[in-house]
Design a protein that fits this description.
The complex is a heterodimer of chains A (114) and B (112).
Chain A (H helix, E strand, L loop, with lengths): L3 E3 L3 E4 L5 E7 L5 E8 L3 E8 L6 E2 L6 E7 L2 E6 L8 E8 L9 E2 L3 E5 L1
Chain B lengths: L3 E3 L4 E4 L4 E7 L6 E7 L6 E7 L2 E5 L2 E6 L4 E6 L8 E8 L8 E2 L3 E6 L1
Parallel strand pairs in B: 2-11
Antiparallel strand pairs in B: 1-3, 3-8, 4-5, 4-9, 6-7, 7-8, 9-10, 9-11
Classes of the chains: A mainly beta (114), B mainly beta (112).
Chain lengths: 114, 112
């Protein structure tokens, strides 16, 4: 079974703090994704990565950055958290770039920025 | 117009009913179609994965794709209270960025 884990289930931070969300997958997947999910807006893609040290902007990258130093780990960074970044953050992975495949999701991190 | 349209509901039905969940899409190039189930405060989990037109059955669940109408459906037979969740349709192009395009999700409640 594919397993995608996220470092925290719930996180509370203050405005202006730097926030790190970590995601690890154990199935040797090449592709990894970060989404945020908000009521009425659905899932929106923030960033994704096909390989170590590679990253691509998704639909809403502003205010976020990512890091992929190892194949199994993909980090989402909020450089200076703001209240409008309060959301559910979901990490996902899929097999490899050349294959149209489903994505497997982690349990999510519910981030509250005060 | 959104690429994928899904009625957000909420949808409430009695236990044992047949449930039909639907999505329409605008891009005829989509080839792979998925349904995810998401329980409250959890991540989405893959329920069904189909390729192109046709039906696929897995237990009480049937996924149907009609590419000529750009319409996909998920049917749940003999619905159970444990089926109460948000159901998200998703689709992907055969080539390119491997990005999933999601519907908004339909919130379903099965009443005992």
């Amino acid at each position: 079974d594919v397993k995608v884990t996220q470092s925290s289930r719930y996180l509370v931070k203050r405005t202006g703090e730097k926030v790190f969300l970590e995601c690890v997958q154990d199935m040797d997947h090449e592709n990894m994704f970060w989404y945020r999910q908000d009521p009425g807006l659905g899932l929106r893609l923030i960033y994704f990565s096909y390989d170590v040290k590679m990253k691509e902007k998704g639909d809403i990258p502003e205010g976020y950055s990512v890091s992929r130093e190892k194949k199994e780990r993909f980090s989402l960074i909020l450089e200076s958290a703001s209240t409008n970044q309060t959301s559910m953050y979901l990490c996902a992975s899929s097999l490899r770039r050349e294959v149209a495949d489903t994505q497997y999701f982690g349990p999510g991190t519910r981030l509250t920025v005060l | 117009q959104k690429e994928v349209e899904q009625d957000p509901g909420p949808l409430s039905v009695p236990e044992g009913a047949i449930v039909s969940l639907n999505c329409t899409y605008s891009n005829s190039a989509f080839q792979y179609f998925m349904w995810y189930r998401q329980y409250s405060r959890k991540g989405p989990e893959l329920l069904m994965y189909t390729y192109s037109s046709g039906n696929k059955e897995d237990g009480r669940f049937t996924a149907q794709v009609d590419k000529s109408s750009k319409y996909i459906s998920l049917f749940i037979r003999d619905s159970q209270p444990s089926d109460s969740a948000t159901y998200l349709c998703a689709m992907i192009l055969p080539q390119g960025a491997q990005k999933l395009v999601f519907g908004q999700g339909t919130r379903l409640t099965i009443n005992p």
